[in-house]
C-alpha cells in the first residue's frame, strides 16, 4: 500500500507528505520531486526525478510496478505562479506567449502526464484517489477581479483536463476519485510576493493547509470524482 506525493520539495508538497505519514501510518509514503529534498521525514521514501517528463515518469512507474505495491493515492502539488522571468500579468499588455506556454506546461500539462502514467498503477477494484492542487482563481465563474491571465487560464485548463479524465476513468476505474483541491492562500514560496495583500487571518501555514487538504481527501468518494473542492470540502464552481 503506497501513497505518492509529486512536488514534494515545495511548501505544500512537504507538509502534505508529513500529514499523510501522520494520518496513514500503515501506508508507504513516497515523496517525488525534481531535485532531492532538503527536509527528510522519517519513514518516507524520497525520489528525485529530474523533471516531470514522459520518460522519467514512465521509468518511475515501471520501477514502482516491480515493487508489487498497490497504489492507493496520488497527491500532486505541482504548480507555479511566478519565477525569475515570469510574473503574474496585471493587464493585457503584460501577456507574453512565453509566460502562457510556461504556466500551461507546469500547471496543466505536467499534472496530466502524471495522471496518464499513474493510471496503470491504480487497481480497478480498489478505492483510490488522484488529487491535484488547483486554485480558486482558476474558476471561470468566480473570476471577478481579473489579472493573472496565465495562472488563471492554466488552472482553468487543468480543471477541465481533470474533469475530462474523471469521466473517462469512471468507466474503467469505478472506485477511483479524481479531484482538484484549492488549498487556500498558504505561506509558501509561491505566495511570498503577494502575502502583503492577504487579509489578516487568511494566510495559512503549510501544515494547517495540509491538514485541511488531507481531511478533504479522506472524505472523497467516487461520486465526487471530477470536482473542484475548496479546502473546507465545499465544491467550487468551474
Ligand atoms: N500557496 C498558495 O497560496 C496556493 C494557493 C492556491 C493554489 N496553490 C497551488 O498549490 C500547489 C502547491 O503550491 P505551493 O504553494 O506549495 O508552491 P511551491 O512551494 O512553489 O511548490 C510548487 C511545486 O511545484 C513544482 N514546480 C514549480 N515550478 C515548476 C516547474 N517549472 N516545473 C515543474 N515543477 C515545478 C515544484 O516541484 P518540485 O518539488 O519537484 O520542485 C514545487 O514543489 C500549486 O499547484 C499551487 O498552484 C497554492
From TrEMBL:
<dbReference type="Pfam" id="PF00106">
    <property type="entry name" value="adh_short"/>
</dbReference>
<protein>
    <submittedName>
        <fullName>NAD(P)-dependent dehydrogenase (Short-subunit alcohol dehydrogenase family)</fullName>
    </submittedName>
</protein>
<dbReference type="InterPro" id="IPR036291">
    <property type="entry name" value="NAD(P)-bd_dom_sf"/>
</dbReference>
<dbReference type="InterPro" id="IPR051468">
    <property type="entry name" value="Fungal_SecMetab_SDRs"/>
</dbReference>
<dbReference type="GO" id="GO:0016491">
    <property type="term" value="F:oxidoreductase activity"/>
</dbReference>
<dbReference type="InterPro" id="IPR002347">
    <property type="entry name" value="SDR_fam"/>
</dbReference>
<dbReference type="GO" id="GO:0005737">
    <property type="term" value="C:cytoplasm"/>
</dbReference>
Amino acid at each position: 500500500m503506497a501513497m505518492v506525493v509529486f512536488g514534494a520539495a515545495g511548501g505544500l508538497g512537504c507538509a502534505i507528505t508529513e500529514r499523510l505519514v501522520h494520518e496513514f501510518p500503515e501506508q508507504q509514503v513516497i515523496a517525488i520531486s525534481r531535485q532531492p529534498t532538503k527536509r527528510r521525514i522519517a519513514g518516507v521514501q524520497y525520489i528525485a526525478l529530474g523533471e516531470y517528463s514522459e520518460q522519467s515518469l514512465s521509468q518511475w512507474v515501471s520501477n514502482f510496478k516491480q515493487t508489487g505495491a498497490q497504489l492507493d493515492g496520488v497527491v500532486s502539488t505541482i504548480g507555479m505562479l511566478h519565477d525569475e522571468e515570469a510574473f503574474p500579468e496585471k493587464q493585457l499588455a503584460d501577456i507574453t506567449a512565453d509566460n502562457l506556454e510556461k504556466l500551461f506546461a507546469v500547471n496543466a500539462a505536467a499534472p496530466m502526464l502524471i495522471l496518464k502514467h499513474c493510471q496503470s498503477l491504480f487497481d480497478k477494484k480498489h478505492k483510490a484517489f488522484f488529487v491535484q492542487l488547483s486554485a480558486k482563481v482558476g474558476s471561470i465563474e468566480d473570476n471577478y477581479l481579473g489579472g493573472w491571465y496565465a495562472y488563471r487560464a492554466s488552472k482553468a485548463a487543468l480543471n477541465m483536463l481533470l474533469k475530462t479524465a474523471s469521466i473517462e476513468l469512471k468507466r474503467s476505474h469505478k472506485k477511483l476519485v479524481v479531484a482538484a483541491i484549492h488549498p487556500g492562500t498558504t505561506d509558501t514560496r509561491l505566495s511570498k510576493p503577494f502575502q502583503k495583500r492577504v487579509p489578516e487571518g487568511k494566510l495559512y501555514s503549510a501544515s494547517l493547509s495540509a491538514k485541511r487538504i488531507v481531511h478533504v481527501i479522506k472524505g472523497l468518494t467516487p461520486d465526487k470524482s471530477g470536482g473542484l473542492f475548496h479546502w473546507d470540502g465545499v465544491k467550487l464552481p468551474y
